[in-house]
From TrEMBL:
Organism lineage: Eukaryota, Metazoa, Ecdysozoa, Arthropoda, Crustacea
Natural source organism: Macrophthalmus pacificus
Cellular-component GO terms for this entry: extracellular region
Superkingdom, taxonomy of origin: Eukaryota
Annotated compartments: Secreted
Main location: secreted
A GO molecular-function annotation: serine-type endopeptidase activity
Full protein name: Trypsin
Amino acid sequence: WESKSLPQLPRIVGGEMASPGEFPFQVSLQKDGLFGRSHICGGSIIDQNHVLTAAHCIKNANPGNIFAVLGEYDLAVDSGDEQVIVATELTIHEHYDGQTFTNDVGVLTLLATIVYNDVVQPIDLPEQMELVEEDTMTMTTGWGTTVEGGSVSDILRKVEVPIVSDNDCRLSYGITDIADHMLCAGFPEGGKDACQGDSGGPLFVNGTVYGIVSWGYGCARPDYPGVYTEVAYFVDWISNQLV
């Protein structure tokens, strides 16, 4: 999740704590730095070697510095359930635009095979162009900030938000800012949203991922829903990265 006014990575506002293992497809993408690994973005397990995320999370990164942490719940505590696997390849959409956040989708290829268990499982992709209807209640999850401009949450959080039509979303952001392959979700009154640090994480319904946390104007502001990459437009592209 990037804010158009304050470029930054996104977190869940107005949500609640998840339970351990509740979202076994959730990934913490972490970057290796001087002081060890730190959470930079979310992602979703899509098969035993690949993680789906936002292009803006991995653009200009070196694969050897990016780790997928699976089975993660509390960033501050090592529960023993975590699998930490380094990326060998970071693929972003060839038409990704960092100014407009169009085609904000990317895939990590991992060095080792993910071991599935009770707390580590893949999420389903929709069919190509299987769109989700307006007002559908969806959920998004992540370790992002719980208030706009705040610090990230150590505990995985979740929030439910309804799908907003592209037309209504364009009334908020402007006709040119919301591409067809973007998906908007949020309440008109605001108060619930993804935010910095949630970027790249999933927006999902019943175990199928329909959106990737991408950008917004601030977090959880009235009349400015969160904006997600609409996965249904990119299923063929994603599938081509998995071979």
